[in-house]
Amino acid sequence: MRIVIIGAVAAGTSAAAKARRNNEEAEILIYEKDRFISYSGCGMPYYIGNEVGSVEELTPRDPGFFKSKYNVDILTLHEVLSIDPENKSLEVKNLTSGDVLTDHYDKLVIATGASAVLPPIKGVDEKHVFTLRNINDMIKIKNYMNDNQPKTAAIIGTGFIGLEVCENLKGLGMEITLVERLPQVTPGLDGDMAIYVEDHLKKNGITVLTGISANEITKSQVILSDGSKIKADLVLLSTGVRPNIELAKQAGIQLGVTGAIQVNEQMQTNIKDIYACGDCIQQFHVVTGNPIYRPMGSTANKTGRIAGDNMTGGDLTYRGSLGTGIFKIFDMTVAQTGLSEREARELGYEVTVCHNIKPNKPEYLGGKELVIKGIADKVSGRLLGVQIVGYEGVDKRIDVFITAITFKAKVEDLFHLDLAYAPPFSTTKDPVMYTGMILDNAINKGRKLITAGELDQLIKSGENYVLVDARATAQYEKAHVPTAKNIPHGKLRDSITQLNQDTVAVTYCNKGVTGNAAQNILMNKGFKEVYNLSGGHKHYSRTNMNNNEQ
């Protein structure tokens, strides 16, 4: 059996390695049009910032490695020009000599990856304008920086790569401006979590411009849609990627609704003996089952392994993606998985949302706050998605949530997890457990939550309500939600007669715990509809920094 693979980065090499483990006799050949293979693309921003010392650290494997370890032949600088499924043949161009050859296959794997999207901006072809998708891009950026010593940079787009490059360029002493056409940074997050990231960027000296587009790039400036100009000796376009599907499309391979190659759970395309994997394929969402396109290195490796297994007699199947992502921006860690609140509502879920602010471990051992946003289905109680902004321990918690969502856990299940506890690592009840408790109280125990945005709507609605600030008077006097009445928790029982039991009541404290205690008092005293402000005044003040908060 002759196996031919197109593409030798994460998915293609994973497919080859798995195929060889299953079948020692097969001929396995990979064509790669680039000269670099099997590289760590996620490490590229750190090479630009001098945290990674050499290109070789990101490209540890060459064709010789795969030949000696797996008996897999990799021909670099060879571009596949066309696929003929009827005759099971390929046209391949040797990019060094210019010669075109014909090859054949018994099984074919398409792992052509994705390419950076170039926005329709005048000047994107200027020599100081770059994308960062592969090692060649990285080297070009680094060489330009070494030769020209740029002092200012504009990064257009605020996805993971853009923010990671932002941090690394800032570490080299450059002045950075982020330009985002959406009204918030980090488009994958909900706005009430993205504000933490934006605030952190600004505190670290980054100029952040949202709700604005780049119209033109000149040799030293970026001209924005409002006519303003920003200095930029270097420009990075971080505006997303699109799947490389031209070869597949020309061969009659079916594309999905996302525009990427459609495959089944075994990575098979609609054409017999042709598989596809990696950043060129459409996936499906674990929660909804709907088609999605989420190109990630971890998913590429996984789908490559599945393709390699199935074309050599195995039975591995793909179980979907949660769109999980995590990145570091300066000393802050940002992570997300599953559905955002925005996505869940658009899909028709009736959601309950909580904002849980807890330290990752006791403060006496240096614990720092995590802000955890949990999104759950009010009808079924199933956890749908989580977003976390914090410092230490974000990765640990997001992985627990990922596992819970994957196995269809309900919010009430989170409290019962037997999570590891010792003071250097966690609080006695871990923030994961607290998140489950808050959502369980809201969905199943009648302890309803109201978000900052919903409270603002209530305040503006003209509806009768009472808003109780249950904090100490000194905290209230320093800052409070407009229209709030200060009744400290310890005095609330004695002040019940001042409040109308038949009107909507909202309680809050600094982060939510005392607000919940005040909510319990009002409910037990016969109040009909009582809400606790999700995340308390601390989260409300952060998400309403530009509002008329007292």
Secondary structure layout:
Elements: E1 2-6, H1 10-22, E2 27-32, H2 44-48, H3 55-58, H4 63-70, E3 73-76, E4 78-84, E5 89-94, E6 100-104, E7 107-110, E8 114-116, E9 129-130, H5 135-148, E10 152-156, H6 160-171, E11 175-180, H7 191-203, E12 207-210, E13 214-217, E14 221-224, E15 229-231, E16 234-237, E17 241-243, H8 246-250, E18 274-276, E19 283-284, E20 291-292, H9 297-310, E21 325-329, E22 332-338, H10 341-346, E23 351-359, E24 369-377, E25 383-390, H11 394-406, H12 411-414, H13 431-444, E26 448-450, H14 452-461, E27 465-469, H15 473-478, E28 485-486, E29 504-508, H16 513-524, E30 530-533, H17 536-543
Parallel strand pairs: 1-2, 1-7, 2-3, 7-18, 9-16, 10-11, 10-16, 11-12, 26-30, 27-28, 27-29, 29-30
Antiparallel strand pairs: 4-5, 5-6, 8-17, 13-14, 14-15, 19-20, 21-22, 22-25, 23-24, 24-25
Helix pairs in contact: 1-9
Describe the structure.
The protein is an alpha/beta fold and 550 residues long. Helix content is 29%, strand content 25%. Helix 1 (10-22) packs parallel to helix 9. It is globular. Mean pLDDT is 96; it is low at 546-550.
Gross morphology: globular
For the largest beta-sheet, the strand count, sense and barrel status come to:
5 strands, parallel
For the CA atoms, what is the radius of gyration? 27 Å
Say which CATH homologous superfamily of the largest domain is assigned.
Answer: FAD/NAD(P)-binding domain
Beta-strand content estimate = 25-35%
Number of strands: 30
Termini separation: 74 Å
Report mean pLDDT, rounded to a whole number.
Answer: 96
Helix content: 25-40%
How many helices does DSSP assign? 17
Order of strands across the biggest sheet?
A: 3-2-1-7-18
Gross CATH architecture of the largest domain: 3-Layer(bba) Sandwich
Q: Estimate nothing, just give the exact number of structural domains.
A: 4
